[in-house]
Design a protein that fits this description.
0% strand; 147 residues; mainly alpha
């Protein structure tokens, strides 16, 4: 009976992770589409899909692990998930944030946006690094709890 309970928790965690992936990708497309249009969002996704999908999948894994751990112990820390999730989202959006210059020149943000645009790939790598740290941290907590 105990293995059925764990299997049910695992299935729920996997489903939760997939939902998190879909939500993160939806946020990505909503923000890019609202900034520069649907065609632009599709173009950016086709250019950087491997980074975007890796970030989204990493975030989904973290959410799945966190939901599994939370179901097991009922008091897991949401700070790690929030930090790595925000980093993943920021890295995905930063790839195209330099196009905010279309709507923000009045605010004088062009200098910051240009710098972000020049280093978009580096932002992706930073996001992936934080994803791996989050997966390691939460995964380690799951393994330690099960032992």
């Amino acid at each position: 009976m105990k293995s059925d309970f764990k299997l049910e928790l695992i299935v729920k965690a996997i489903l939760t992770g997939f939902i998190a992936i879909i939500i993160l990708l939806a946020i990505y497309f909503i923000i890019l589409t609202s900034i520069s249009g649907w065609v632009f969002a599709q173009d950016q996704f086709s250019r950087f899909w491997y980074f975007i999908m890796a970030l989204a999948i990493g975030f989904g894994i973290q959410v799945g692990l966190y939901s599994y751990l939370k179901a097991l112990i009922k008091n897991a820390s949401p700070q790690v998930l929030a930090t790595t999730g925000a980093t993943s989202t920021a890295a995905m959006i930063s790839c195209c944030a330099h196009y905010l210059t279309n709507i923000l020149p009045i605010l004088g943000a062009t200098g910051i946006i240009t710098i972000i645009g020049q280093y978009q790939v580096q932002f992706f790598w930073i996001g992936l690094f934080f994803n791996l740290l989050g997966i390691y941290f939460i995964g380690n907590k799951v393994l330690n709890y099960q032992q």
